[in-house]
Amino acid sequence: MRVEPITSDFAAWDEYVLRHPDGRGPHLSGWKSVIEKTFGHKCYYLAAREGNTVQGVLPLTHMRSRIFGAFLVSVPYLNYGGILADNEAARDALFEAARDLGKKLHVQHLELRHLSPQMPDLPTKQHKVAMVLELQPDTEALFNSFKAKLRSQIRKPQKEGLSTRVGQQEELENFYNVFAENMRDLGTPVYSKNFFARILAAFPQQAHLCTVYREQEALASGLVFGFRDTLEIPWASALRKHNALAPNMLLYWSVLEFAVQQGYRRFDFGRCSPNEGTYKFKEQWGAQPAALYWQYWLPPGRALPDISPHNPKYQRAIELWQKMPLGLTRLLGPPIVKNIP
Fold first, then answer.
1. CB 130, CB 79: distance < 8 Å
2. What is the C-alpha separation between 221 and 245, in angstroms, rounded?
């Protein structure tokens, strides 16, 4: 078993990801160019081979900043990642190669976003779950499977005359305007618009934007990403000032309709913390929690990282960010958020 870095000709890599049962969209090689070109981070894509046969892969991103430190993550900004391997020999070889790379780069930790506790001896966080809904075969059956209260909440924005459009680059400006304002209101630095433009360009078959409108005004929008039989919504936002119109409910119903119409069997609402507000919002649609295992290698003397908004040391910064002018947050956000995995 040998581990080698892959820098070009990723056809075998993506074929492996597509056939591995734990493969997810973030494992696809297209993310390498998206991350490197948008954020300037160096990505290391490691493949385990026996002979000419790929038996495992691990995409890694090296992140460095004065504020947050240096670390390797698989995969930053996204919900999934980590080691894909056919057997323990390939898994262990990839982990050892990643650990050695971490030592060489003097990182503070290596983070692997696994679907199962692949490395039982590693420190593991289970602070997040993915919320996944098994879809009905048609939209009518799906709608009728919801409770009466949820059906009423979906009908409300429809009765108010709100409509939806699904597209790609032509929807980007409106998606980003909604996303940037919502991130400011949450106190979170915003990604650059180029990040989403590059996702749409790199994944023309998988990535789409769905936007809710009142006439020509965008009120809510989300980016969806399809992989095999699952449609995921990694980013979604709605403008708080229009909450009375419930555009968020129409957004999620519209992407669920899109998922069914495109033949997907599952809808992934994304990760959240158990029993918090977003968890309960996703649960009302019938989504069920799926455990996530974020596993870490730490150099001697290092503690598990906590770069979450729940960390008390970031609360003051969040409060200040919420009060900033929107234009300023769009300018200052991308250089900050590039270093938050």
1. yes
2. 14
DSSP secondary structure letter of residue 50: E
pTM over 0.90: yes
Of residues 319, 277, 322, 281, the one with CA closest to residue 183: 322
List Cβ neighbours of 228 (8 Å cut-off, separation of 6 or more): 18, 23
SS (H, E, C) the chain: CEEEECCCCCHHHHHHHHHCCCCCHHHCCHHHHHHHHHHCCEEEEEEEEECCEEEEEEEEEEEEECCCEEEEEECCCCCCCCCEECCHHHHHHHHHHHHHHHHHHCCCEEEEEECCCCCCCCCEECCCEEEEEECCCCHHHHHHHCCHHHHHHHHHHHHCCCEEEEECHHHHHHHHHHHHHHHHHHCCCCCCHHHHHHHHHHCCCCEEEEEEEECCEEEEEEEEEEECCEEEEEEEEECHHHHHHCHHHHHHHHHHHHHHHCCCCEEEEEEECCCCHHHHHHHCCCCEEEECEEEEECCCCCCCCCCCCCCHHHHHHHHHHHCCCHHHHHHHHHHHHCCCC
CA distance 289 to 268: 10
pLDDT reading at 57 higher than 90: yes
Q: What is the pLDDT of residues 92-149, one digit of tens each?
A: 999 999 999 999 999 999 999 999 999 999 999 998 999 999 999 999 999 999 999 9
Distance (Å, rounded) from C-alpha 107 to C-alpha 68? 11
Instruction: Determine the Cα–Cα distance for residues 328 and 4; give it in Å rounded to an integer.
Output: 43
Q: What is the amino acid identity at position 242?
A: H
